[in-house]
Protein 1
Amino acid sequence: MATYSTNEFKAGLKVMLDNDPCAIIENEFVKPGKGQAFSRVKIRNLKTGRVIERTFKSGESIEGADVVDVEMQYLYNDGQFWHFMVPDTFEQYQTDEKVVGESGKWLKDQDSCTVTLWNDAPLAISPPNFVDLTITETDPGVRGDTSGGGGKPATLETGAVVRVPLFVQIGELIKVDTRTGEYVSRVKE
Amino acid sequence: MLSELRQFFAERSVLEVETPLLSHSIGTDPQLEFFTTEYCLLPQRQTLFLQTSPEFAMKRLLAAGSGCIYQIGKAFRNGESGRFHNPEFTMLEWYRVGFTLPQLMDEITELFAALFREQSLQKTQRISYQAVFISYTGLDPLVFSYQDYCVFARENQIADAVAICGHDHALWLDFIFSHQVQPYLGENALCLVYGYPACQSSLARVNKDNAQIADRVELFINGVELGNGYYELADADEQNRRFDRELAIRQQEKLPVTVKDQRLIAALESGLPECSGVAIGLDRLLMLLSGSVSLDDVLSFPIRRA
């Protein structure tokens, strides 16, 4: 893998730091007029998601990380592993709960999602920003309910629970923002 | 901004000068990378340097008896690019014959009051490097304690400093000052930090009463470094020694070779008048005056689009 010098640091660059793959979020060139130059970097550990700040002396290099984002289709969960496939090549990947994490509750069979591969092994799964899912369970609505006021919990086909307005019923398809876990709208089938 | 600057100096009878951007020699500061260019005067070929600052040429004018002078011109520093850096930038540099550093600091304060009159800056702060360093870190910058500096770095999320700085006192000061002190300096005010540690004297005189500090001042507004001034070193032998020391460091670190400016040394030998001088980055100044957050906002074409 290539190495990158501090001059090449920019947002999005994937590098190895303390043996973990990381993504640079922000790089600031710091240099006193009469003094040593540094690169002050905000960096996300792609394994843990934690953001840390690190400083490098200008001109230092660090190793790049073989990290790529690939669009894949989510196939199924066999109870232990989650299975994904690259639509073009039919190449399949499997990964466990630890990697899928919170994203799992937004994944419906056949839906596409972004799989981050590190050395060709799944490192993280990101669902699309918006997903359409069917409500499998929620309290029945009462006549007169409008969009205003309160809301109620609804369980979706993937097991995720979101707050929905009172007028939304079991069996309806709704759009959810996966970044906030919030209901957006009903979807016409 | 430029016309106001010129008016400010005209009122004080400071002469505007222009010195070459291309020169046969260049500063030896190991922290400044320079551009070189090829001068073809066939059959000769010579390497010329683009100036990192007009300082040497202006000091030669001072030694030749120019009196008080200022210059607004370009300066070039290789490899510097970022939110507050562009490899080609505009500098204002001025020298006041007979001024001590505190007198120059008064004039800097007047200049900023004039420039920023519509932004209503708070009252100018003056604080010594030692005092400001201690107040933000609890560490004494003049006395190097490897243990204390390491403990401080680990407790303040800058543990990288330990590996980067090792036992290099000046490097530690650069690291800690730029990470833990400078960002907080001059909140909506001009902050003048004076009395730099002698190991960071650059081209300033060492203080005559306290050999631990140099008569050097730096200017900050909202955490942005705007300029650097000295009670100018006039001792040719001392200047020669500093050049040699920096050249040795350059050699050690395998940095590009430079030649020391014999013409500057000759000028100092013939006699530089007692004077103080300061250089201010005008792009950064304009950035602050216009409330911008990045140099790119005030440059017509930053380097990647130049």
Protein 2
Amino acid sequence: MLALFYFFVAVAFAIGVWQVNKLLTYRVIFKEIKDGKKIITFENDDNPVATEKDNDLQGKLFLIFLIGFYLLMGYCLIFLQDIMLPDSASVEGEDYDNLYRISFWLIGIVQFITQALLYFFSYKYRGIKGRKASFFADSHKLELIWTTIPTVVLAVLILYGLSIWNDVTDLEGDDAILVEVYAKQFAWEARYAGRDNELGRGNVRNIEGANSIGIDLTDAKSADDIPVRELHLPVGKKVVFKFRSQDVLHSAYMPHFRAQMNCVPGMITEFGFTPKFTTEEMRQQKDVIRKVASVNAVRTANGEEPYEFDYLLLCNKICGPSHYNMQMKIIVESEKDYLIWLNQQKTAKELFKL
Amino acid sequence: MSEHHHKETFVTKYLFSFDHKMISKQFLVTGMIMGVIGVLMSLLFRLQIAWPEQSFSIIEAFLPERFQSETGVMKPDIYLALVTIHGTIMVFFVLTAGLSGTFSNLLIPLQIGARDMASGFMNCLSYWLFFISSVIMVVSLFVQAGPASAGWTIYPPLSALPQAIPGSGAGMTLWLVSMAIFIASSLIGSLNYIVTILNLRTKGMKMTRLPLTMWAFFITAIIGVVSFPVLFSAALLLIFDRSFGTSFYLSDIFIGGEVLNYQGGSPVLFEHLFWFLGHPEVYIVLLPALGLTSEIISTNSRKPIFGYRAMIGSIMAIAFLSTIVWGHHMFISGMNPFLGSVFTFTTLLIAIPSAVKAFNYITTLWKGNLQFNPAMLFSIGLVSTFITGGLTGIVLGDSALDINVHDTYFVVAHFHLVMGVSAIYGMYAGIYHWFPKMYGRMMNKTLGYVHFWITAIAAYGVFFPMHFIGLAGLPRRYYTNTNFPLFDDLANVNQVMTIFAIIGGIAQIVFLVNYFMSIYKGKVATQNPWRSNTLEWTTPVEHIHGNWPGEIPEVHRWPYDYSKVDENGEYIFGEDYIMQTVPLKAGEQES
């Protein structure tokens, strides 16, 4: 019933708009009839095709719109800096940030120029009665210019991008720490490879009791694996993640490290990076202080506890009703602290009494 | 005219009409109804994302009670359902059928000089299949557990398992049935368009004299025929997995406390099949809009479109490239990184023909004599959003950069601007421009201006700041962001965006009232109100079967002879436009 009410409101609004518009298009006309007498009439002079007056007004509106659009872009680019992600917290992410900066400068410049041309031409060449438009149908020179320039620029971007992509996706090397990240509706778990730095096999068919991520306990490599519910990483050492999912697609998104990879049931995917700052160090970064201040301004206003920065792993692929609350804290610490923590955790052998 | 004039009943004239002009109106009105549903849904979920877990009487009004909590707040899975159905309806039902279906049907016979489509029956069938699929999609909204809610990309296993999300039960089944019928409709339509353009052009209408609208529709139909069947196969295999226990996409799944009996399938296979359609679909949506605007910008600039052949070339290049870039949706899906490199390369190449198109539009405006009819405003708006949205594609198409912005609001902002808003602008431009051809009356100009300016401000107000919350790392499809203090400072931005969305939504009522009132009350149109060159403006204002009362006119020139002057700088025929039917004057060079 309430829906019907909203429907009627919409209809009433529509009729109102139509009627107001109709009234506005009536003009008072003084007409001369014979004998020099004048009469006053109301006539609807709404010409459905744009007149010179319309062209003038709309052309000027385009210019105003351009200014407004520039202000919006400027505001977003300057004042929304505070809410953005801080500089990369991983070594590999430095290249990412470089490419990101280059790309944004490039598209920013092109955006500002082309929008200016588009709206300025709309203003400048607004129709005037009697002006002849130029019959300018083709120019090989111009076409050549704006085919070649984008091609060259894009070639550079492609090559730089691909070289970074190759570096980031190259996970070869033996000394990396191996961590399995395990996704399920709606939580994350993890498993460290232990002393042999090799993960035992895993399959959802092995899930039973405390073995919640389906470690294959018959595999000799499993015994020293360390299943955990919290992710600790040593600073300055390359970590290679192996991702598994228990049920549907998830995506392991670690925005501060510029890292993301989907978790696919029935398949192991991988990604890797080297943390650059410990959590403590990261909290001292200028960008992070700025971001935390921006968050806490809102939280104080709402009367909430102040926020302290932590690295996060969050799910970034729609995975079910509670997709919005699937997260795990990541703690980056010195290698010493990391090893102390790791040694306190129970291995699969201890946990499952093999 | 071979067809006998027979008596028309209500049924043959308005329901099962074979006449392309009537069918185009059927497509448009159905598309508009679906559009209202789709936009309303977006407003409901924008309210939730801006003011999480608050109750609004409009939410209580439009959501069945079982979709709300006791306090009148929409449930998380219903949020996802709204997002899913909004995407499906807008992409397929509004921007594919509503846009391409309407204007391909209306304009192809009229602009190439044909009595009707190659097959009137197939055309009628195409509409009615679309209608049935729309009805099924709407019915799916009322299913007990809620409609499909796995995202419009319906990735399995989420879309395959009702245990994973309630909407993957009956709602998903209806979604798949609806889409299968939709694809049949789209294929039948596309084949008809291709055959008509190739075979039924009037005398003198060489391919190189076709208006750019025709080129756009022709190429769009070809992409549709190439890619839609693949989505059909993907949907079919998903139906098998869901209902007959096959394992095409599913493997090693533990859910609800038990291991499911699936082994050896891969969701990545589905992603490949889906995006083999899904990416070309973007251009199926966008190219017709670009085609319409090419025509409108040229007419209203009183200038030939700049670089006619380059425009055709770039449409073809975009179409070809669009079929080999689908992997850029899957850079982090777990597919081989080398494949990612290949798709980065092909994806960024698309920027070249797109840039050519944008520059050609801008150059067409240069030194024109611009007539700001509402259609022209929307066309300029399209060029603007196409550039803004297109440029961020350079970030997303680069596999290295995609890692961190993938599936964030940055993507949502990008595609809404480049294909959503742009295509809708193209559709509006088309409606304002060809309304006189559809109904023999004119739409109200002032309401058109009001509609454009509010929409233009609202569209940028919603989607420009959205880039930045994406760059802040905010994932899309989150019911609320309140569980992450990290995102607390984005709440204000989200609220501003929602307010703009509501303003934009209300502005569309102005359009609807203009449209429906103008059908009955609009000023009666003249034969060629925009002083345009193309063939449709040589037909009588009143619709007749077969379009032209006598012989079909012969074509003597390309469609863009605007403001053509002789050596003395005088218009060759005294007017600033020369219709395609006018033979060359002695000594005149064909452009």
